[in-house]
């Protein structure tokens, strides 16, 4: 395959998933330039993550549990959470619960996309291997982003539960990301029997959170009133 074909195949899954979740916003779609800004920041996160993970591997070793839950999931999800919280959480465009999902997914998929590009270029990846990565690592990052964004939305629009949901917005993505990595690290020959149910569960769970976030949008009431007036 040509370099262009490899790059297109590596980038396409992240862009497609971002478009899918962006268009799931029923009431007030976010500014495209802001979503792409967060996506680009997610791309840039790959570099500090690589440095930090290398340092942690030297310090903590490569025990599968430690690597999966701390070095991989812990570092990646914390930096993604840090990005969304300090760049977007207090932004005026974050004006309904579902927006948390849009921006967290954008940051996660920016990260996953560059990670996928590096994998494709460094491993001379085939279309089949890139399809595998689209269905697992890239899709997985999107699911972790949905979980993070859902709880960030709950934190912002439920003042009495802010601390609880801020904690969940970080800890749950780390947990599920860690489970994902641990399965791949410890089940070399029969991983598919664990991974397919796990991914199905994460997709079903994420789509439910998408519907719940949309259902609690304050703009839903406004749109309903406008339709009644018309």
TrEMBL record:
GO biological process: proteolysis
Subcellular location: Cell membrane
Residues spanning the membrane: 6-23, 35-53, 65-88, 100-122, 134-153, 165-184, 190-207
GO molecular function: peptidase activity
EC number: 3.4.-.-
Keyword Endoplasmic reticulum annotated: no
Membrane topology classification: Multi-pass membrane protein
UniProt superkingdom: Bacteria
Alphabetic keyword roster: Cell membrane, Hydrolase, Membrane, Protease, Transmembrane, Transmembrane helix
Entry keyword annotation includes Cell membrane: yes
Entries under Pfam families matching the protein: PrsW-protease (PF13367)
Family in the record: Belongs to the protease PrsW family.
Function: Involved in the degradation of specific anti-sigma factors.
UniProt-listed PANTHER family: PROTEASE PRSW
Protein name: Protease PrsW
Gene source species: Paenibacillus konkukensis
Lineage: Bacteria, Bacillati, Bacillota, Bacilli, Bacillales
């Amino acid at each position: 395959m040509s370099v262009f074909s490899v790059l297109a195949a590596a980038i396409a899954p992240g862009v497609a998933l971002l478009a899918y979740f962006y268009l799931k916003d029923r009431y007030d779609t976010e500014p495209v330039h802001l979503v792409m800004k967060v996506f680009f920041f997610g791309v840039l996160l790959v570099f500090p993550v690589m440095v930090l993970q290398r340092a942690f591997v030297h310090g903590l070793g490569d025990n599968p549990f430690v690597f999966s839950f701390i070095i991989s999931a812990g570092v990646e999800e914390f930096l993604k959470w840090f990005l969304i919280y300090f760049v977007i959480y207090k932004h005026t465009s974050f004006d309904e619960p579902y927006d948390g999902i849009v921006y967290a997914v954008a940051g996660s998929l920016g990260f996953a996309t560059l990670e996928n590009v590096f994998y494709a270029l460094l491993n001379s990846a085939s279309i089949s291997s890139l399809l595998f990565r689209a269905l697992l690592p890239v899709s997985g990052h999107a699911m972790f982003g949905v979980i993070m964004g859902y709880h960030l939305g709950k934190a912002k629009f439920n003042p009495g539960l802010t601390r609880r949901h801020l904690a969940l917005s970080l800890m749950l993505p780390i947990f599920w990301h860690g489970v994902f990595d641990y399965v791949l690290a410890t089940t070399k020959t029969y991983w598919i029997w664990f991974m397919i149910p796990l991914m199905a569960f994460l997709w079903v769970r994420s789509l439910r959170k998408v519907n719940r976030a949309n259902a609690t949008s304050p703009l839903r009431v406004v749109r309903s009133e406008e339709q009644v007036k018309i």
